[in-house]
Write a structure and sequence with these properties.
Blueprint: H1 13-22, E1 38-41, H2 81-88, E2 95-96, E3 110-112, H3 130-142, H4 148-152, E4 155-158, H5 163-170, H6 178-198, E5 203-207, H7 216-219, H8 229-252, E6 256-260, H9 262-271, E7 286-288, E8 306-308, H10 325-335, H11 342-345
Parallel strand pairs: 1-3, 1-4, 2-3, 4-5, 5-6
Antiparallel strand pairs: 7-8
Length: 346
Amino acid sequence: MDSHKQFFSLLCLPLMLLLLSGLQVEGRLHPAYPSKKLFVFGDSYVDTGNTRKDQPGSWKQPYGITFPGKPAGRFSDGRLFTDFLAKYLGLKSPLPYKFRNVIPQNSKYGMNFAFGGTGVFNTSSSYPNMTTQIDFFTQLIQEKVYTASDLSNAVALVSVAGNDYNHYLATNGSAQAFPAFIASVINQTAINLIRIQKLGVKKIVVDGLQPLGCVPQITAASSFQQCNSTFNTLVALHNNLLNQTVTKLNQETNSTFIVLNLFDSFMSVLNHPSSHNLKDPLKPCCVGISSQYSCGSVDEHNVKKYTVCENPKTSFFWDLLHPTQAGWDAVYTNLQTTNALHQLRY
């Protein structure tokens, strides 16, 4: 997800209703799996440090206050889903691509090519889209950084968390064409998954879209009291197409493509926050002091223009778009009750 404040705010409810009428057409390590590597592609839901340090957001205070205790390039107060999945596989979190020449020894755990703000297509972000991220991966394989054996034992994580839709709306994409645009996002995602598979990765997991109608950017309109069902209906269209596409890919190839149902996992946690020791689940922990500021904003005198909640460990959302470490932990815990993650280990 992007940290830009424009996220979906350009779309008013009447437009959404028009659109809907067209829609009818830290745990234990597992040392038994030491040979695995994790390769990550996508956006800020999985980016562990590829964005530039001079940009607002993930490299600025107060990001990273829970882990590692300072800003470290994650769009959260701490760990992201990438970190939890790596630990599940018995790995250290894969090295962000931009540090590949700084600490090359850490490339043995895999590589993270994700950049916050990006999509499968170009977005308002200047960072590499997913096609280019896979190009980077291809280049490393050509340079023999990773062998065929490395790849056949590897897991790829692919995150498509909504930036393409943000950009579509921000550039005045029409309501009537939105369903066709969703289909094009899924089609491009399928092309990306096949490219990764043809490079030799046998297990590829792709995130389903989370409930966009529940991110604080949207729920602010209800004082963070309720999700917007109109947005979540759009998410359902994306996820249904993704599931159909992945089912077809599994029938046509000898690889394993797995969809992580983030929608249901997010909703399970948001609907039962107390079972995860969370409170006010739709309310973000870190917010700007007014609508012109966001989490991490400072003025020209470096005076902070944001507030942080007393205890991020009881918040599901960190800022207007991204979960806290506690939020991701709860989602990960819920996903462990499904079969999806188990398929990655064996």
